[in-house]
Write the structure tokens for this entry.
Amino acid sequence: MAKKGFREFLLGHLRYFIIGGLFIALVIVLIVIWTKGSHKSSEEDENASTIPELETTVEVPKDKYEENAYPDVNSLVSSYLGAMSTGDTETMASLSSSLSDDMKAFYEAQAKYVGNYSNYNVYTKKGPADNSYFLLATYDLLINGQNTPLPALISLYVCRNDSGSLYINSESLTADEEAYILELVAQKDFADLINQVELDYNSALDSNAALASAATALKDEINKDAQEILVAKQQKDLEEAAEAEAAAAAESAEAGASQVKCTSENVNIRASASTDAEVLGKTKSGDIYKRYEKMENGWSKIDYNGQEAYIKSEYLEEVESAADSESSSEGESAAKDLKPGDKITVKENVNVRKSASETGEKISTAYRGEQFELIELANGWCKIKYKGEEAYVKADYVE
């Protein structure tokens, strides 16, 4: 394939390559196919790129990689690979800027079949950002049930945060970063390292038929299990979202609920707002219920023995809350000082009604600290402007 094809391939898979961790059979072989045979002669440039004319505003050094040169980088890589070997994606995520659900599912699935990582070596070059590194790390792993280790390789872009701590940068790359890292990957020393890992991998498979068979089957098994893990997580997320939505709806309904009293005997309590719905029980005159909603179709949604039920609204009347009880003399005395046009402040939660009566239809609840314009004060009631309409609250609950 032409060099341009390699560049397009690697750009299209760069994020996957950078945060990969798939062992050599699944990813690195593909990269080697496009890099083989494309080196310049060592006489031209000892560490030349295999991809000419990459455009980047950041100068790309041509120094040979450093092997195990930075203890703090090695420690980060060791922790990351150790977590990867056991499918500990939470630790992996804590060491990186992000780890998608897809990748978490892959690593969790991979750990069921592959483990016992060992023999880490870290090959580091200066990264495109200040105090950053781009590296290839080689290691050995065992497929479960096999005794021969397989060589593997991972590429990582390592940066420092504001506090100076290292982390694996798995965010989307800028155009400059992409071009810079492509140039590094294509340099002869890194390309030779990738080729050598591939040769060692193939040699291990060629000398062990059982290992070759296990490695061939592994990709499909991992992908299948990863898909199942991902679907299960998505289902769990949907269930949790539905539970949260239901809880929020219940909380909202609870906040708007009022106490109502039944005024008639033997009124049917039904499972839905229809005279054809299942009868759940019958009322007694004076029974008290919690009403969640007074519906426009003439029904009320109530709580009946812990479940939602419905009853004709004509048989119910509201039971006054403490906020609608008779006003105190202290409140009445304070209200006498109020004048039309004053801004009044609610000092205790109070029902807002359509008329100046304790049996008037409740519009809403006014909460402590809310302010309204007073239109008129009469008989212990304040006529106010409420959401553009006239409404009433008890005078002893405002100031």
User: Anything to note?
Assistant: The CA atoms of residues 112 and 228 lie 13 Å apart. The chain has ten helices and 18 strands. The domain at 258-318 is CATH 2.30.30.40 (SH3 type barrels.).
